[in-house]
Amino acid sequence: MPDNTLDFQCPHCNAPHRLPVQFSGNRQPCSECGKPMRLPSFVASQAPAPISSAANQTHAGAIMVECPLCNNTLYASRDKAGKEILCETCLESVAVPAIPDAPSKSSQTTTKATTKPGTVANRTSQPETAGKEFELSDPTLTLRPNQPENPDTGQPGKTARYADQSQSGELTIEPLKDLAPPTPAPAAPSMPTEARQTSPVGNQPSEESEEEIVELEAIGDAPSIPVQPLTPIQAIPVVTDPTSTAPEYELVIRWDTPCSVCQAHVVVYQQDIGQTVQCGKCSQPITVTARQPLPLPERVIKQPHRFAGEQTRIAQLSERQPQPKKEVLYRTVIEWQVLCEVCGTGISATPEDVGQEKICPDCFKVHTIKAPAQMPEPVKRVVRDELEDLNQSSASRGSESTNGNSVPPTATAAGSTRQVLKDIPDMREKIQRDEHAASRQILERAQQEQANKEEIEPTLQFEEGSWLKAVAQLMTLPTVLSRVAILGSGYALIAALGHSATHTPSGGSIIGTMGSLALLVVSAVMFLGVSAFAFSTLLNIVRQTAMGDLEVREWPAFDLWSWLSDAAIVFVVVTYASVPAGICFWITDFFLSGLLGILPVILCTVIMATLFPFFLLGIMDTGSLWQPFSADLNKRLKHRSDLLVKFVLIGIPAVFLCIVGAVMLLNQSKIAVIFAAIMIWLSLVVLCRIVGMLAISMAETDTEI
Q1: 124 φ, ψ to 5°?
Q2: For residue range 285-310, what is the model confidence (pLDDT) as tens digits?
Q3: For 107-111, 151-155, 482-486, which range has the lowest pLDDT when averaged over its residues?
Q4: pTM for the whole thing?
Q5: Rounded distance, CA 226 to CA 221, Å?
């Protein structure tokens, strides 16, 4: 400590302070706790007192030891002398050296010398037994400046205590006890100053161990603060519990193990391996087995252990107990996926959602949920509470709150909780693209959808007689009329040549017979050529009508191979329809021969006219000539039975026209045969137009499913 400063600690809060020496002996409040304290007197430089070789003691009476592993300086209280403590840095056990017992208190004589002002009286204590360390008979030597000694006892008044300080030699201030309340008293500037000198007696010379303690009373005006009279005040007592000690720590290896009976987790230690402990909850024995690998050591507060009997330890319950398994509820539901037309995201739907609107989570397009053609199979789904996650998070926040009277929000929210299904797994597809690319793609698809909607909207919004209007509109299209007229003339010519070849009498001549055969061959070749062109025309009418081109503006370019392939499709469809129709014709003609000869022809025509559209739609749906039946088509027709009824009602005139033409083919008149061929051709054109209208409605049904 420098010669011109005072270093001391507050006796109440142990806060360190440093003041100039001119403030020594005054009373000042502590800057930390605000309690009054007496500033110590100036202490001259003193020689270090002899210390024990076993332990070093600080100014607070603690024992200073050094860790042998990390060389860290540790401080231990006096009650730890002769014991072991843990290093705070490396957790190594450090032995605290024992302090030799203090000698019995002996009476000491004090020499008092009263001098004039400015002189100093020396007081020496008698030496104790040689070979022992220097200690005062009383742990503290009581000093009080400007206070005369008690004439009865010859001892000064108790105002401050000089603690046993073997290293620093600093003064500490303790609260003043057993004093009267503060009363104003006049200053006594003329009071003489007392000076006492104490010199410990030891093995060293008196000149080296002598120390001088001078207490001066503040007289006159101080350079910075006014002079205050020294009046006794009542110090605030500090309540201390002498029995309370610092907690003891230990380094242990422990882990949790479950009880086989109550499933509670108990804490076991490394020294319990191979032994039996008792569960602290159900009192059942638990055999501790080694754990591989062992957990890391922990520094915990040393706790006492309870024993049942002599060797069986009662294991304490762990703080981390297993949570009870929550009961899982399942419910059988029916659900399917609705694909968003804009972004392609899957939207979950249930039978309860039919007729309602749902918004796509990606592009926010509103979709009206409609029932599918066939309901999917029921699946099991987990049932959960809708507010479960919210309640759990609120409960965790409530437990962390410092207000102990707060009620967890789970109790209030439990009344409004309802059970709902969890999210459908793998129902919503993740779009693996950046935000701008997704926006552009959604915008492009939306524009394309809007363009298609504007183009097909007139054809989708049909009225009650819209199909009839579409059939009538076909007869007003110049391109269609020209093709139908040319092909009708071709079929009329073929019918005339065929009638002439079959009904012209040959008269038994070879030339007449050869002429008839030649006409038949020519009519057959012409039929194949005209049919190739006619069948491609019929198929194009079906395609364009199904695509929404009711005016049939587009026609395929001249390509012999395309014409032959289209003609082959229609020819195969006619062949498929002719097989059951021919079987029905021969069976009915066998039983009704001579009675109702026209009835087999009518039944055959009805069967062909009915099967022709369905076989054509089936081949167009499957894309294979060998699969005239389509499972998808059957499902959609079953779902939209109204379209089937509408198709049958509008197709009745075309079927009737075909029946009339078929019956007229049996007539002997050439004119009747020609008109019969034209009527059959017109009935096929009308049927193809109706098939195209049915395909439009089926396509609309596809988007709704």
Answers
A1: -115, 145
A2: 888 988 888 888 888 888 888 887 77
A3: 107-111
A4: 0.36
A5: 6
**Cα separations in angstroms, 371 against 98, 245, 339, 340, 496:** 91, 78, 13, 15, 55
**CB under 8 Å to 34, separation ≥6 — which residues?**
none
Amino acid letter for position 316: Q
Q: Which two tokens stand for residue 11?
A: 């006796």
Q: What is the pLDDT of residue 455?
A: 67
User: Which two three-digit tokens encode residue 565?
Assistant: 């392939």
Single out the residue of 642, 628, 621, 641 nearest to residue 699, CA to CA: 621
Q: Is the dihedral of CA 520, 521, 522, 523 positive or negative?
A: positive
202-220 tens-digit pLDDT: 444 444 444 445 444 444 4
**Cβ atoms within 10 Å of 683's Cβ, excluding its own:** 23
Beta bridge partners of 141: 162
The answer to whether the bond into 293 is cis (omega within 30° of 0) is: yes
481: left (phi over 0), alpha (psi -120 to 50) or beta: alpha
- Token pair listed for 454: 């504007």
In the sheet that holds 16-20, the strands lie side by side as 16-20, 5-9, 171-172
Q: Phi then psi for 249, rounded to 5 degrees?
A: -115, 155
Residues 6+ apart with CB under 8 A from 626: none
For residue 479 the two structure tokens come to 């391109």
Nearest CA-CA partner of 501 in 477, 479, 525: 525
Q: Number of H helices and number of E strands within the chain? A: 12, 30
**pLDDT of 184 over the 50 cut:** no
Rounded to an integer, what distance in angstroms lies between the CA atom of residue 333 and that of residue 330?
A: 10
Residue type, 281: K
Decide: 91 and 125 in contact? Cβ < 8 Å: no
**CB 563, CB 586: distance < 8 Å:** no
Q: Which strands make up the sheet holding 56-57, listed edge to edge?
A: 56-57, 63-66, 73-76
Closest C-alpha to 263, from 328, 325, 326, 329: 325
Residue 77: closest CA among 103, 49, 101, 96: 96
CA distance 325 to 435: 42
- Residue 47: what are its φ and ψ, rounded to 5°? -75, 145
d(CA 21, CA 24): 5
Distance of CA 520 to the CA centre of its chain: 82
Do residues 312 and 288 lie in contact, with contact meaning Cβ atoms separated by under 8 Å? no
Q: How many whole angstroms separate alpha carbon 613 and alpha carbon 466?
A: 19
Contact indicator for 409, 391 with CB cutoff of 8 Å: yes
Task: Label residue 636 exposed, middle or buried (CB < 10 Å: 0-12, 13-18, 19+).
Answer: buried
How deeply is 612 buried, as exposed, middle or buried, from its count of CB atoms within 10 A (0-12, 13-18, 19+)?
buried
Residue 548, C-beta contacts closer than 8 angstroms, at least 6 positions apart: 455, 456, 459, 696
With 0-12 CB in 10 A as exposed, 13-18 as middle and 19+ as buried, what is 456? middle
What is the SS3 assignment for 582? helix
Q: Name which of 289, 260, 370, 279 is nearest 318 in CA terms.
A: 279
pLDDT of residue 145: 42
The CA-to-CA distance between both ends of the chain, in Å, stands at 95
Rounded-to-integer distance, Cα 179 and Cα 237, Å: 12
- Contact 155/130 with Cβ under 8 angstroms? no
> Whole-angstrom Cα distance, residue 41 to residue 54?
32
